[in-house]
Predict the 3D structure of the following.
Amino acid sequence: MSVAAIELIGVDKRFGSVHANRDIHLTIEKGTIHGIIGENGAGKSTLMSILYGFYQADSGEIRINGKTTKITDPNAAIGMGIGMVHQHFMLVENFTVLENVMLGVEGAPLLKNGIAKARAELKRLEQEYELDVDPDALIEELPVGLQQRVEILKALYRGAEILVLDEPTGVLTPPEADHLFRILEQLRDQGKTIILITHKLREIMAATDNVSVMRQGAVVATRKTSETSVEELAELMVGRRVLLRVQKGEAQPGEVKLSVENLTVRDSRGVVMVDNASFTVRAGEIVGIAGVAGNGQSQLIETIAGIRAAVSGRVLLDGQLIDITGAADPGELRDRGLAHVPEDRHHMGLVLAFEEYENSILGYHDDPLYLKGPFLDIDAIKADARKKIEKYDIRPGDPNLKTANFSGGNQQKIVLAREIERDPGVLIIGQPTRGVDVGAIEFIHKRIIQMRDAGKAVLLVSVELDEIRSLSDRILVMFAGRIVGERDAEADEGELGCLMAGVEQLEAAE
Amino acid sequence: MSQPFAKLPAWADYGLLPLINLIVAFFVAGLVVLLVGESPIEAAVLMVKGAFGTGDGVGYTLYYATNFIFTGLCVAVAFHCGLFNIGGEGQAYIGGLGVAFVGLGLGDTLPWWIVFPLAIVASGIAGALWALIPAWLQARRGSHVVITTIMFNFIAASIMVYIVVQILKPMNIQSPETRVFGEGGQLPSLGWLLNAVGLNMRSAPLNLSFLVSLIAAFLVWVLIWRTKLGYEIRTMGFSPKAARYAGISEMRIIIIAMMISGALAGMMALNPIMGAQHRLQLDFVAGAGFVGIAVALMGRSHPVGIVLAAILFGMLYQGGAEIAFDMPNISRDMIVIIQGLVILFAGALEHMFRPTLQRIFHGFSLKKDQTAPVIAGGGQ
């Protein structure tokens, strides 16, 4: 048997009382794509940070190509042939591809020779791995898929034999993701070793040879991908059986609750973010808006929720106009039965520095229920918060705990409990399960379906196409601010992917 | 990982850390004293004795502390709204105009217990109005309050020179000040309070406004943590986006918070004007507005912390004066250096020792609890 590319023996790491990595034993074979999957907070990122030298393990041993090594900082990791492609790209936006690739390894104070050498080397890499990028293109002008390719080239340029990709598909459309997986396969076939970190089961099945599952800081299983199933992996991740696709009955749409007509929104720089969008949401249905992040979905729901001003168009709630000129009061919209679970729960949906009970009234703090004259009725607020904690199984169940100390899933439940318990007629939800663990996703999805079945109109925005497809009764696809298509829930994933990527030929052909 | 270090327990965060900062500040100040050839120990003894050893020492310490409580609260309220109001100096100065207005107008005819509440209101309104323009500029135009409030300090200083010298100063007085207020414009001293604990205050100017400052501290606590308005102010301070989402008007809340802040600074004027000098003099604020920033930082914008920090700075002022008096090598300027060091370590470098302390506590928690569970893991 050949020597393993990476061998981790008993790696252990604590942060205070958090045991981030427990006695990790992991072997990654040379020339394979090895997936590491786990919920948020399972310790994947910590483990990779140890491998890349950001953190030092408290104990344990790392062997690279059979040799015991100490990785003290990222430079040492690069020296050992480990390359990292971060979830958030580490590129200088207003530099060219070439400049970014040679950044930090320029070779000499004067760039002239370095540039010529780098250009030649880049050409060789591009040819060898079929990674075409124009070396003189500015990063900010490249689509994200290509930016990611530059990150990979950067790692290869530094002689990486082992590539670590941290949640690489978060910003990609499905076709772009598939393309990435093809590149990874090619790299593997050329002898590189690839570690793919993700929380998406589908990607593990599609792209990896082996997969290790992490739960609560430990590696709980390693499987050959061909010998496992999505169901088994999900169960290993959560530690119990999970329902991956929510069960739901036929939608029974009623009257139109929310109607958007020719809505156009610009951002502060004057760039059109929402372009002449029109649609309706009826009582008792879930309308999902699919799209790659940054195509105007955020601006669309913020405008409907009264947070952002529109340039033109109309929004009607229960047949009554909403003021979308920027003077709208989200508080007034709440009174009219429009609840909003914002995409950005850390900065908008919650005040992380607040105690849990304080967040349980955010936006509803005008309600006499929570007030005694000008004073907060703390007892009433806490009693109310406790009720929601119980009903939504928010853990830990302590209304006095600082919100920042809750896990992502529980934070999301705090927001959902607050908005849903108000029994709104229209519910707008942005990214309901972003950064939320699998166990909580199931719960949140069930709640959303319950809202629909109770005859509420639900507008759902998510960058997770799977989520949109499993929850929505109708799917709208947004691209570059425009609604480029409407499909029913049974729509083919490839077709939706093309719409999301802005391929309009499909549309034209119909 | 979002939390690489163990969180400090509250007692360490609010007690131990400020204490360490203070000890380091005094240690460095001691080196300075040593450098000019005096004994740091003696200086320290002189300072504490001067501030707390005698009745009039305590009287002066608390008199200075009164100023700092007001200006500290001023900075804290704005801070809770995410605003850095460094215009306390000017707001307090203009607040003096309100006190003088009431003191000159009514002091001759009405008893103090009627004049005083009116003076509180007038000083508060004057300070609030002076904060209104920067507040409006911030809320409406996005002009940063740090810039506007500090410029308004200068404007206030010039306006006050003009008003005092050209308008309020009687013809027969040489110095730039108003005439002495009538009986009703003079606050009772708190000598009886110190007498009750066996101290003789003699001529120290401690007066009723000290108690008003304590009441103000309590009311600020109620406002910030127990009212809807305070909830809105804190939401705005932590996250303007969350405030927008919650339907809290940014414009309204910024203006209200700044005006409350300015009103608190304005009330500081009660202490020196109605409590001690019984007339409006130029430069009566004497830097208290800026000390308030250090007091608020050190007191973590919490009224209890502010009262304690204000008393500490009162001690530095009063004890410092004693040192300057008794130690020939230490001038008034040296005292300012020492005060500056305390501000530096306790205020500006407040977080310097935090990582180290966190590491130490992290070490403890490792030893204590080897099988600690993962915090809040999993949703179900």
